[in-house]
Structures are given as C-alpha cells and as structure tokens.
Amino acid sequence: MDSIKVFAPATVANVTCGFDILGFAVENPGDEIILKTCKKPGVVIREIKGDEGRLSHAVEENTATISILNYLTHVERDIGLEVYLHKKMPFGSGLGSSAASSVAGVFAINQLMGQLLTTEELLKFALEGERVASGTGHADNVAPSLMGGFVLIRSYDPLDVIKINTPENLHAVIIHPNIEVNTKDARNILKKNVPIKSAIRQWGNVGGLIAGLTMNDFGLISRSMEDAIFEPVRSMLIPGFDQVKASALEAGALGCGISGSGPSIFALSTADGTARKIGTVMKDQFAQIGIESEIFVSKINQKGPVILD
Amino acid sequence: MDSIKVFAPATVANVTCGFDILGFAVENPGDEIILKTCKKPGVVIREIKGDEGRLSHAVEENTATISILNYLTHVERDIGLEVYLHKKMPFGSGLGSSAASSVAGVFAINQLMGQLLTTEELLKFALEGERVASGTGHADNVAPSLMGGFVLIRSYDPLDVIKINTPENLHAVIIHPNIEVNTKDARNILKKNVPIKSAIRQWGNVGGLIAGLTMNDFGLISRSMEDAIFEPVRSMLIPGFDQVKASALEAGALGCGISGSGPSIFALSTADGTARKIGTVMKDQFAQIGIESEIFVSKINQKGPVILD
C-alpha cells in the first residue's frame, strides 16, 4: 500500500453530567485525510482544505501530523509521506475537530504501515496530537473518535478508557450555530472547587446515565442528562441556549446539552424521525435570534475511523 | 393474618466512589421484627433484644415504629399492634442498622395489612423512620435493604432509585471491628467543597463502577473502587484501616472501603472462598492491634426483606 484515504468522525464530549469523562462519536461530520508515501524522506503537508486558511502547514504544529510523527518515531520508521487533510467539519465548534484530525492521521499511518499497533495502542499518539490544539489532550473526544461508540474515561492518570454498551436505536442530533467559542476560554471560566452537594448530584447522574445506557433504560438516560455545575456557566457563552434546549426537549429529546465546550449543542433521541424534528426546532430557535446553524443527525457511530479508498 | 415475622438485611452504603448514592444489601446480618395485632388500639413496643438497652421503647422515637406509624396514617388504618424487635447486627457499625429496622417495620406492616402498597411506595415510609436515627434519611441504606441488590440513588430531590444489574457471583465480605463511630460525627468532619479535579475523578470512578457491574467486567469494578475524597478523612477514625484494606486487596479483593460511615469495612470478591480468606486476613490485621472483630460473608442479597413465619 502506498496511499490511503481515511475518515475519522466528529465527537460529542462532556456529555451533560459526564464532564471530562464521557464522549461519543457520530457518523457525520468528520475529517478526511489522505497519506501518500514518496521517495523524499520526511513528512510534509501538501494540502489542507476546509479550514479557511487557519491551520498551520508546519508538521510539528498540525494535530494530524504531530500524531503521525510520534507514531513513526515510536515504531522506528523513517519514511517519506505526503499529507492531504480535508476538514469537513466546523472549526472551534465543540465537535472535536482537532481530535478527529489527530485520529485520522494516526489511524491512517498505522494502516499504511501494516497495522503495527492496536487501536488501544494508537490512543496515546492521537491524544498527543490533540494536546497541541487545546492545551490538554481531551480523551473524551479522541477516544470515541478512535474507538467509536460511547466512551467513558474512567481515569486520566493512568489513562483508563471503556467503551460503554448503548441501546441500538440511540440517535444524536447536533446543531452548530455559526458563532465561535474558544476551548481555552470556555475552560477558564470554570470554578476550581464545587460544593460537595453539587458534586454528589453530578456523580449520581453519571451513575444513572451509565446505568441507563448499559441497561437500555431510556427514561433513566433522560432523567440523568443533567449538568448543574458546568452548563449554567458555559451556556452563557451561547446566545439562545436555554430556548434551544427547551425546544429540543419539547420536541421529544431524551436530553440536551453543550457539545464539548460549545457552541454546538447536542440532543439524544430514540428514533431518526424524532432526531430530525428536534434538529428543525433547534434551528428555528437559533434563526429567531438571527443565528445561522447547521444540523447533523446520526446514530451513535460504533465504528470509529474507516478507510475510504 | 394476625401475626408476622420479618427479616430485613444489613446494607453497605457509600460504596467507595459512590458516596451517598450507592449501596447494596447482604444476606447477613440483619434485623428481625415480629408484629402481632391485638384488641387494644395503638402501636406498642413489647420487646427489643440485641440493642444492649440503648434503643427507646417510645414508638415515636424508634425507627421501626415511626415507619409503621407513618404507614398506618397514610393507609388510614387504626389497629392495635404489638412490636417485638430483635436487633441481630451491631449498633453504630456502618451497616445500616437503623435502616434495616425501619425497613423490617414497614415491610412487615404492609404484609400484615394485605400489601396495600408496592415496594416502591414503601420507600418513603422507611426513609422517614431512618431519618430519626441519623438526622438524614440515607436512601443508600434504606433502598437496598428494602429492594435488595445493588442500588443507585440517582437523585434525592426528587427521589430516584435504580436497582443495578450485577454479576451473579459477586460476593461481599464485611468486617465489623469492635469500636464505634457516630454517623453524625463522621459526616461533620467532611468538607463542604471539593476540588473540581477530585470530583471529576470521583464521577469517572462512579461511571466505571456502574459500567463494570452492569457489563460484568470485574477488572473495571476493581479499578473503579476508589474514593480519594472521603475515605482519606473518614478512615482516620478507624484504627488500622490502611493495613486492613491492604491485606484485603493482597488476599484477592476486587476492592475495599468503609461501609457507610464506618467503622465496618467491606470488600468485594468474585467467589465465596476468596471472600472468606479476605475476611480472615482482615480479622488478623485488627487482632494485631488488639481490636476484636466479627466477619460476615455473603453474596449480594437480591431479595431484600423476607417473611420468616
């Protein structure tokens, strides 16, 4: 194999009560990467599309190529490689854009090298790439993009990542309003301490959400999708959040929350039709305050990255 | 029916990371109650055994009779009732002693009245009885004693209680050292705020523990049984805690922690033989510092209260 094209999915992290520990992959949007081996040694970025000129072409600054370089160092291969990155999702959107690029890169190079490492082993290289973009490696974006499904980060130190069983017909709808929130800013407005009462309520909900997902209890999933700690603070950066969320719940969403650090908002539902209806009412709400938006509806993506050619 | 004898099980609450939200029932020890209808109206306590004379015989002060009185008021029955309570577990032990009495009382009276209420409906009466003993109604003791099994209290307001699927062969060992910790004191030494980092680690572990239990992943259960917030503080009230815990883990325990607010300590394991071995080494550790102790080994009790005669 001297060329490969890979798709890696967008992800929803900070799933309501599961701040920093729960994320899931969707079927679209996502990023595409093409890797081509060449005679001249070293890794070069030949093209980046869909980034409106905002991403660096320097290989040591781009999330995709950082993960590739780390991988190549680890497996001790010194090859010539041309990289073509096609960003097919909005930037700074809370959909794990940098994580998807990083995952696409490391998954593609591992395929090109004949799968020298397992998916689990790839995780640390993908995380390292993502760390450059956001200052910290968000495993709750990177892990679901790489592994597919609904993923729990039980621990960051040591890293302990678990794929959670979920109901077959769980659908996600994501709305991306055309505004931007910087991840670092969104983290900086968070408090350093939480009242023990709020923390207990939060871990009760985390327990409920995991129990609901693994035991196929949609009522429990719905009741557990609550975040009384971060959402009230972060949602202030998203105009119209309360109204959009209320409209989603009224349209039948199991629950609704900020995707990652926003401004995208996600909702879960039990059927494709309901998810589409929810998307429409959310879009209407944003339109009412003059904000354009884009909707993505899919099942939970269980596959993670896939080879396109 | 004019007489009934009921057993209600002891419980382990505050299961490691699941402070205030996770508890489970064991097969022994537990409390027994006998109710006999009589001609003279009103509820009277005829006998309390096993309490070393420490429990009040006043019906409005005893957890068992408070729950019975509240039940009778709710169902609008005015009967004559004699109550015989046999405490068959240590007092102030962290094994949900008051919860078991409360559950035994309300379960027994409901049987005697021809099951006017469902188990779910009984919960609030049992909680009310327990509230008198500890100042707050610990649903993570009361609910597993009443419902059996491993129980998640997702929320206290409104009360939302979920029975969690658990692996068939999950065994518990409990050791009760012959020292006493007052529940109110044990709560008072806890902080009012927690660092956000610790809280995130705790809810990651709660997610991991629930996922491990429902997905039959013993490794995950083991890794998730960690409490870096409360255990370091509360364990200071239990002499030898660190050594006892270390010995349990070395003997093959999946995990080990304080039962309720202590001083009892519990461990989980995958087999009866291992659980017994763990109990022996824990008992040896306490003996080395001159503390006598009592061991209880059983599977997770899935039944809750049972009618004995």
What order do the helices and strands of chain A follow? EEEHEHHHEEEHEHHHHEEHEE
Query: Do you know the CATH architecture of the largest domain in chain A?
Result: 2-Layer Sandwich
What's the helix count of chain A?
10
Mean pLDDT of chain A: 94
Q: What fraction strand of chain A?
A: 25-35%
Give the largest chain-chain interface (CB within 8 Å): A-B, 41 and 41 residues
CATH domain class name of the largest domain in chain A? Alpha Beta
Helix proportion range of chain A: 25-40%
The assigned structural class of chain A equals: alpha+beta
Per the CATH scheme, the topology name of the largest domain in chain A is Ribosomal Protein S5, domain 2
Gyration radius of chain A, in Å:
19 Å
Largest sheet entry of chain A: 7 strands, mixed
Instruction: Give the CA-CA distance, first to last residue of chain A.
Output: 11 Å
Low-confidence stretches of chain A: none
How would you sum up the global shape of chain A?
Answer: globular
Domain GHMP kinase N-terminal (chains A, B): 75-149
Domain GHMP kinase C-terminal (chains A, B): 215-286
Keywords (chains A, B): Amino-acid biosynthesis, ATP-binding, Cytoplasm, Kinase, Nucleotide-binding, Threonine biosynthesis, Transferase
Pfam families (chains A, B): GHMP_kinases_C (PF08544), GHMP_kinases_N (PF00288)
